[in-house]
Amino acid sequence: MNTKTHTMQQTISHGRRRFMLGAAGLSFGVAIGAPDALGQAAAQAPGASAKGVTVSPWATLHADGTVAIMSPAAEMGQGSLTSLPRIFADAMDADWSKVRIVPAYPAGKLYGNPLFGGEQYTAGSATVTGYFNNLRQFGAQVRRVLVDNVAERWVVPAAELTTIPGFVVHEKSGRRIAYGEIAAFAKIPAEAPVVEVEPLAKAQFRLIGQDIPRIDVPGKVNGTALYSIDVQVPGMIYGAILREPVEGAAPERIDDAAARAIEGVISVVPLKYGVGVLADTPWAAFKAKSALKVTWSRNANGWGFSNEKGYEKFTAIARDASQKGFPWDAKGDMAAAMAKAASVVEGEYRADYAYHAQMEPLNSVAAVAPAGDAVEVWVGTQSQTITVVAVAKALGIPESKVKFNGLLLGGGFGRRGNRDVEFIVDSVLMSKAAGRPVKVLWTREDDVHNGRFRPLYVNRIRAGLDASGRIIAWHHRVVADEVLAFMDPVRNKMSKGVDGIMIRGTELPTYAIPDRMSEGLLQMTGMRTNPLRGIGVGQNSFANEVFMDEVAAKLGADPVEFRLRQLDTTPLAQRGRRVIEEVAKMADWGRKRPGRGLGVAYLDYSGTQVAGIAEVSVDRQSGAIKVHRFWCTIDCGVAVHPDNVIAQTESSIVYGLGLALTERIAVEDGAVKQSNFYDYRVPRMADVPEMHIKLIPTRNHPTGVGQMATPLVPSAIANAVFQLTGARLRQQPMLPERVKLALEQGGQRFA
Asked: Cis (ω within 30 of 0) for the bond into 733?
């Protein structure tokens, strides 16, 4: 047994937050991952015993009753900083008013998400889903440790003890003891006790499912929330980077005379991928960056590429049946079923590149030691562990020499989660060159010009129908830029050429189509790509759901009824049936609205069941679409924080609105044409429709929430425009000029 006090602290210097855990308290818990992960992680944690005593910083109980609970995920506005500790606290039966939440330090074997192979990686709406079971287990084990200690102290059977929030209770004698008092005498077992948590169907939650204020919101309202862009450290200067206009280009000639002449400029730093400027102020750095004259090498793949050239090439490939891709959602014998079909329906769909448009531009602060053998970074990132690895690699130092300070993210949407975390490496390389701390800031123009975009897509779908009009075969071909190879070479190598990010969303797990296959045909265009909110689902499900509407129209079927008829009889499909029926009821689907059209879309997104209906009007003179109302139902299983589910769904809808109607990145000669929000138009307040969201909680394992409604929006809008005008829109975004052309041509061609 171990009763020694341990302290684990994370400090952020110069007027920022200080967290201290374990002072005069007790640390306990178990580790995620391998059996030896607990000891290894504890040995690396500040304040850990030099003797390697097993310590887990998942929870720390203080004598005053305060419980500090670690949150392993990045907080980028999605609420994980509140939701994950709440799961732990519920199983521990902690008094939430006494819980203090602390962001976890990088320790993948301890804090890694099981769905990402132990990486501390916050993405894909996989956080609550991935951590839920383990956090319930760990919280229950902590509760059991407290109960066992009291049982020994009071000399009563542990079975006679129970808990209420913050107390262990012995009902027979009427005694109770506060958790804080137990810290004074508790003993930590060498191994975590075996505890079986209740199945979800029977679990009696105290905290899960209750609405509470998110802990990150007050600071965001009053201005005290800390982002890396706010960080100031002694001796810090500023850096700006002129990066290559096309991925893989390099500076051949640099004329920096005008840049060096600008007041406040300290030095110009040549880099493999661009040119950096160091200055006393960010404004001097930005001005000097703009004054640089650089000739770039022309050997990069992307030179000469454009959206239109991409569409021409991708479309030819999609139509060429001799070119095979990697299979994805394969079931039965699609080819044989298609050959037997009484009729075949075909459709083709497109999507332009799209930018993440996170509100906080990329930035990072780094302080490299004078000898270059250690570094401290302050940054908001979607992966603590990937960041540490990338920074260590950039400097050629051990990972143990990287001190990481994780901060809030001003939006991520996938942009802050790539393997090379180039904006963080920027700050590290510039600090090494400067010999002092450096804050590197990307302007919005930098962020747009050098973005990592949702790929260019061409989708081609063929459906085989039997004589009764039932879909018996489905073939979905996806042609797009590769994503995984660019954003995460490590995962790409493990995937053996299967780009799960590019192809996601082609699946039809709840539709009763016996023979189907989707396949991905990856294109190496040289463009920068990354997952974007909704991953590949945003485009691939757009193709699925607009095509499903087209099939229904050919059969003269109501779009809602047609989808309901396609669902199979599995429990998951029955949950899908409920969200479709409920959203149709909410929108009063059958009621005609003069001058307005309704469109429906449904999606099973990694088990989350979502359905949406858009009400739109179209200005036939300009081609502009106006979305007046959007109804949405969502079944994500157990909703840990219901109000946050609603908020995230609203956010998803607004994000999907921009992707559907206005957001487009155009590439010309390999370079991005857009610069800022004046020519990359995100939704304004006046564009946001009246939204009606209904959460349908069920006692199923929680599934994702953060991006599940985003893919519904373009599909529902396109289908609503068809109901209103008879014109089909098959390309994202549905720009006014494209809509006008579709109206003129009956929607049979791409604008």
From this structure: yes
- φ/ψ (deg, to 5) at 611: -140, 145
Output the average pLDDT for the chain: 91
Neighbours of 685 (CB within 10 A): 6
Q: Write the pLDDT tens digit of every residue in 211-270.
A: 999 999 999 999 999 999 999 999 999 999 999 999 999 999 999 999 999 999 999 999
> pLDDT for 101-136, tens place per residue?
989 999 998 999 999 999 999 999 999 999 999 999
Tell me the CA distances in angstroms from 630 to 132, 470, 623, one per residue in order.
Answer: 30, 30, 20
d(CA 144, CA 150): 10
Query: What six digits make up the tokens of 476?
Result: 């979905």
Place of tokens 């037997």: 340
Rounded-to-5 percentages of helix, strand, coil across the chain:
35, 25, 40
d(CA 307, CA 674): 13
**E strand or H helix at 652, and its extent?**
helix 642-661
**pTM recorded for the entire structure:** 0.92
Q: How far is CA 29 from CA 39, 55, 117, in A?
A: 11, 8, 21
CA 219 to chain CA centroid, nearest Å: 22
User: Which residues in 449-596 belong to E strands, given as ranges?
Assistant: 457-465, 471-481, 515-523
Q: Which residue has the tokens 């757009």?
A: 542
- CA distance linking residue 584 with residue 80, whole number of Å: 31
CB-CB neighbours of 253 under 10 Å: 9
The strand pairing partners of 671, in sequence order, are: 668
Sequence-distant (≥ 6) Cβ neighbours of residue 385 within 8 angstroms: 106, 107, 108, 112, 119, 120, 121
Tens digits of residue pLDDT in 198-222: 999 999 999 999 999 999 999 999 9
Tokens coding 173: 């004698």
Helix (H, G, I), strand (E, B) or coil at 218: helix
459 in Cβ contact with 520 (< 8 Å): no
